[in-house]
Every structure is written in C-alpha cells, then in structure tokens.
Design a protein that fits this description.
Pfam families: ROK. It comes from Vibrio echinoideorum. This is ROK family protein. This protein has 12 helices and 12 strands. It has helices at residues 14-25, 31-38, 42-54, 119-137, 176-183, 193-202, 244-250, 258-267, 284-308, 321-331, 333-340, 358-372; strands at 58-60, 75-77, 83-90, 93-100, 105-112, 144-151, 188-192, 213-218, 222-228, 231-232, 312-316, 348-351. A 5-stranded mixed beta sheet has the order 5-4-3-6-7. Strands 10-9-8-11-12 form a 5-stranded mixed beta sheet, sandwiched between helices. Strand 9 and strand 10 (231-232) form a beta hairpin. Helix 6 (193-202) crosses helix 12 and helix 9 crosses helix 10 (321-331).
C-alpha cells in the first residue's frame, strides 16, 4: 500500500477506535458486549461512548427489553458520521463510488477511459466525478475521511509506485502518492486490486463466521489477497498474494485472465462491453476458457488449502459470478478432498458475494479501516 502524503482527517484515541471497530462488526451492540469484546473497563466504555455520541460518530439504537430490569440501549454506528470515496481501475472503465460510515455504497459513477491516456487527464476526470458526488449529496469536506484506490499491479520496493499492468505502463515508476495528493484534498490510500478486493469481500458483512479468507482475482491478470485472523496479511514487502509470478513462469498465453477471455470473445466476433456481459457456458469460447482456467488454477488452489487452511476461498474480482461458479464446479476439489480421506472439512469455495464492483467497494472501505486502525 502507498501511504498518503496528507494526514488523517480524523484522529481517534485507541479506546475510541476499539469501540467503533466493535460497533462496525456488530450492527447493534450493547455496552456490556463492548466491554467483553474490547477488554475495556465498564466505566471507560461509558465515557468513550459519551465522547463518540457527542462527536456524532455513533448513535443509540431502539431500546431492547431483555428479561427483568431496565431495557438495554445498544450502540450503532452513525451512517452519516463520515464518508469515503473508492476508485477502482477496471478493464476499460473506472468506477468512482461514495460510501457512508457503515460501509453502504450510496452512489457510483462510471468513467470509460483509454488505458494509455495521460495520468493527469485521468485524475482530472476522476476528480470531476468526485466533485459531482460531493455536490449531489451535499457532503461537508470535514466529513470526508479520504479516498481508497484499487490499482492493477503489485507495489514497488520504493514505496511510492505500482508496477501496473502493461496496458498502463506509463503509470509505472511514478510517485503516485504525491500525484494523487496534489490532485485531491484528502488522504489517498493506493493498493493493488487483490488486496482491495479481499478487504471488500471480508468486511462486507457477508461472512460473519469467517476468520481466514483467500481471494483469487481473475481480471487484468491473476492475483490473490489473504485475510488471516481477520486482518489483511501483506507480507514482508507488502506483496503477499502476488501469485502472478507463478503464472509468469508458465507464459502469458497460460494466464487465465478475464481480459484474455474478452479478447478471445472479440476474436470470435462477439464484442461484449465488459466482464459482467460475458455469456454463459453455452458459448463455446466461454466453456473452453472455463476448462482452461480451472486446469491452470487447480494446483494453486490445492496448495492454498494446504498452506493456509482457510475458512473459505473466493474466486472474484473482475470475474463475474457465473464464470467464477463455473470454474469452481469444473475444479471439483470436493472430489479430491474425498479421495484424500481428510478427517476435517474443506474450505468453502464461493464466487464473490459483492459482485463485479467488489474492488470499488473495497476501495471505499480503505479510508474507514485506516482511520479505525484496522
């Protein structure tokens, strides 16, 4: 991740961060449960709650009658406490989304763009869309936590740049943190699309019982993101999940990318607007590609089960749900598991529960998580 050149918009105490994190994990939570989850003293929770209520960061929910005695008044995040923007570079388009403090996407704008367009022109177009959203929803600048950006490619060792896909080669070797910082007035967090995707999937609220998750991103290239014990695992050089290196050894023609599938469909005479418009398995090009993709990623999936023993493995990113499910069905690792006679359950395999805008949603969440110290 590239660190913003601008400071956090909102400085919180460690206790405030703990309480807000619990409120985020549980949509409505009584003070007693906050004490249990955070390890804070009851008196501390009471005083911190008053501080956050005064700041309009949280609100009191409806009274809940529980047995005898006084009703419980749970605490909830205030959705209008703060807002964040997410920017995601998809195949041939950029999505710009606005989310509230509860992680609900309020509005989204889509920009068609040429991947070889000058950087400053692209950023000016993005800024124009963000300005439209700010004016449309009448958001005060002080309530904006910042911007998250999903970029296709791993972080470089200089901590300033991203080794982007070939089609965006002119973005390589550029101090992106400074350039984004010059254009936007809020902090900007930039990370590779796989990390952004797994953050979005894990913190979507769709996986409440999951602690460990691995996501395979099939889009511009092939990559992965890893959540261990509810935290994004980055690795020593912030590039954990950079499995594209393995596929580089196999050769470009052996990478199972959605971009490659779109090119094959175009070559067959079928032009589609984007990944979500890819036809089903009744299309011969698609069915052949699914078999190819399953064969290519199956060894990596088996190794992932052995190395990480996750609760679930997601195939998503730019890969639409019907294609992800087709790959899972084709891989059929449940049969491998039965033949191996394992005495414990295999990880659940699933397409993304968020859908084609997963990276955009994850990007929206980055300013919230960095502010809360998650």
């Amino acid at each position: 991740m590239l660190t913003p050149i601008k400071p956090l918009q909102l400085e919180l105490t460690p206790g405030q961060k703990k309480l807000l994190a619990v409120c985020r994990q549980h949509s409505s939570v009584p003070r007693a449960k906050i004490v249990e989850k955070t390890g804070l003293r009851s008196g501390s929770v009471t005083s911190i709650s008053k501080e956050l209520l005064a700041m309009n960061m949280i609100k009191e929910g409806p009274r809940e009658k529980v047995g005898r005695g006084q009703p419980i008044i749970p605490l909830q995040l205030n959705p209008y406490a703060a807002f964040s923007f997410g920017i995601a570079f998809h195949i041939h388009r950029i999505e710009v989304a606005l989310a509230n403090f509860c992680g609900e996407v309020i509005d989204t704008e889509t920009i068609d763009y040429a991947e070889d367009a000058p950087i400053i022109d692209v950023l000016k177009n993005i800024k124009a869309q963000i300005d439209v959203l700010v004016d449309k929803h009448k958001i005060q600048n002080a309530r904006i936590l910042g911007i998250g950006v999903s970029m296709p490619g791993p972080s470089e060792g200089d901590g300033k740049s991203i080794r982007t896909i070939i089609q965006m080669g002119h973005w390589r070797g550029v101090d992106l943190a400074s350039i984004f910082g010059d254009v936007f007035e809020w902090p900007v967090w930039i990370d590779n699309d796989c990390n952004v995707a797994v953050v979005g999937e894990f913190y979507s609220g769709q996986w409440p019982e999951v602690k460990n998750m691995v996501l395979f991103e099939l889009g511009h290239g092939v990559g992965g993101g890893v959540i261990i014990n509810r935290k994004l695992y980055r690795g020593s050089r912030h590039n954990a999940g950079e499995i594209g290196t393995y596929f580089n050894l196999l050769g470009e023609e052996n990478k199972p990318t959605i971009r490659g599938l779109l090119d094959q469909l175009a070559a067959s005479g079928l032009e589609v607007d984007g990944p979500e418009d890819i036809p089903g398995l009744d299309n011969l090009v698609v069915s052949k590609w699914v078999r190819f993709a399953a064969a290519q990623i199956k060894p990596m999936l088996v190794v992932t089960l052995g190395w990480f023993d996750p609760d679930c493995i997601i195939i998503g990113g730019s890969c639409p749900r019907h294609i992800s499910q087709a790959i899972i069905d084709e891989v059929a690792l449940d049969k491998v598991w039965e033949e191996a006679e394992r005495s414990y359950a295999m990880a659940q395999f699933s397409p993304s529960k968020i859908g084609p805008s997963l990276n955009t949603y994850g990007a929206c969440m980055f300013p919230v998580f960095r502010t809360l110290g998650i």
